[in-house]
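Bit of a strange request maybe. I'm writing a small parser for structure token strings and I need a real example to test against, not something I typed by hand. Could someone generate the tokens for this chain?
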Amino acid sequence: MATSRTPLYEPEEVTAREGSALAQADDVVGAPPEADTVASRALMIAALWERSRLESSKDLTRLTQLTKWVERFGLYGNLGHAGAELFDAELGTWTDEDIDTVSWASEELQVLLWALTRAEIPPVDQRPDPQELIITLPLLKDAEGFLEQSVLRPADEIEATRALYEALLEAVRSEVYARSILEDPAALEPDDELDEMLEAITDRGFDRAAAAKGGKPAEAVQGLRFWSRSLLTELFGDASPHLAQKIDSAKLVSLDDASLAMVLGTAQARAEALAWLVEGDEEVGAPPEE
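Reply from user aminoacidic:
Good idea to test on real output. This should exercise your parser:
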């Protein structure tokens, strides 16, 4: 499954290292990041991916070069304390979970490069090849021009893509929830949000009364899949600007559990990356939204 930006990214724990990212000090917490901040973050993800690769090669010379490069361009500022400790750890000490976390960061890198107009986002059931992303970046090279000359896609395009992935994530989560009920119907517990959703989709044509005849689990599964199907139909109608991202409900339902888990992780990682592009980092100590 996808992980959150923790432990790699914890904005409340600014990590001091030599050098400084070009615009991060001027960015407003809770505001969309500037293009050079996005570019800096992309470079740090590339550095993390390279650091992950070195766990196998044990190339200490390469690690020294990589560390000096990260310091030179102030990329440590993209990491929280735990992320910096991971990057600085002795070669060969990363756990499988550490490697998996960094591998999922390739999804964020894909989104950041898309925002920087340097890549496209593939459909949610396709994961990117990290190496193909890395070669578009000046890894271990002079990155000053990349940082200074980067530009972002229009804000409304980024916001529209964020809305797309939030809806996709909701559709995928609905299918995951439905399968968990099918696997163990007796484990279904009272769920106010589920009940609200089932009530709401009756206006969309869901026959809740008929579904309920099969019992609460059957009602829940049918309702969740109706909701997922409705979301995907709305997202990818004939006039949709997002047809390149299309996945239909029949395919989603047909996926085996491992493939569905991959799609869930992909949707979650991309939605989180797009949320950062729209909102930036949350203000430390800010009260949670009601």
